[in-house]
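Posted in: Structural Biology > Protein-Ligand Complexes

Title: Requesting predicted complex, nicotinamide-adenine-dinucleotide in pocket

I'd be grateful if someone could produce the 3D structure tokens for the following input. Sequence and ligand are given below.
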Amino acid sequence: MLLKDKVALVTGAASGVGRAIALAMAREGASVVVADRNEMPGEDTVRLVQESGGNAAFVQLEVTEASRHVAVIERALELFGRLDIACNNAGISVGRSGKYNLLADSSIEDWHDIIDVNLHGVFYGMRAQLPVMVAAGSGCIINTASIMSQVAAERLGAYVASKHAVLGLTKSAALDYASSGVRINAVGPGYVDTPMLRFKSEGQRQELEARHPVNRLATPQEVAELVVWLASDKASFITGAYYPVDGGYLAQ
Ligand SMILES: NC(=O)c1ccc[n+]([C@@H]2O[C@H](COP(=O)([O-])OP(=O)(O)OC[C@H]3O[C@@H](n4cnc5c(N)ncnc54)[C@H](O)[C@@H]3O)[C@@H](O)[C@H]2O)c1
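-- Reply #1 --
Done. Output follows.
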């Protein structure tokens, strides 16, 4: 077991990639704090972990509220006594309009929705998680970035900006805490088959598949396996790094 006796926090763990990360970490022996703003599907993740023999608890988290991150860490410590791993994974690709717009047609509200969750949420998360890890002299943070941390796509201005920023933030934080025993890395999935793609038509999905040299989307599990490995002691010399998991997307 790669994560035996570790305690892991996963944000956005009620769905998609986050749920797969929670399940994979539990399979590898971690106790998992399933954090999400959506309680019922979050409890479903806990149930799935428990049904597969793992240990997990749900804690409600709205990632755009800095104080909630602090409360979640306190709860994690109450529940499991320590925090070894944090995966800042919650993210959105569209704002309240539910539309992918050209930049000048994008509303200010949509811009703030996306930046608040994808960028501020990761900053607030690390800000709450790091003191516990620094005090312990060890820890590992993995931020879910994207291929859109390195390249762009049309009608995704705020999303691309947020994911580029998450990569810069990850590197900067890694330098700040490298000497404290805390490793901080980012993963960059290509398009993943999750509810995030619910706004896409069948034709658009096929077009997205064709953009990957492997001609398909990733499964959430394929992203989760990379995150588990980065979180494990096998990755002990890796910090400040960005790992794509993208079916060849960025090689083109
Ligand atoms: N699906 C893709 O194609 C893809 C590609 C690259 C990167 N990603 C990234 O992977 C991560 C997970 O995405 P996914 O595809 O699993 O999406 P998803 O929509 O299936 O799951 C996202 C989860 O985050 C939670 N969440 C959203 N906003 C939140 C908030 N303000 N506070 C708390 N929780 C919140 C949702 O409730 C949901 O459970 C995101 O950071 C996303 O940007 C996804």
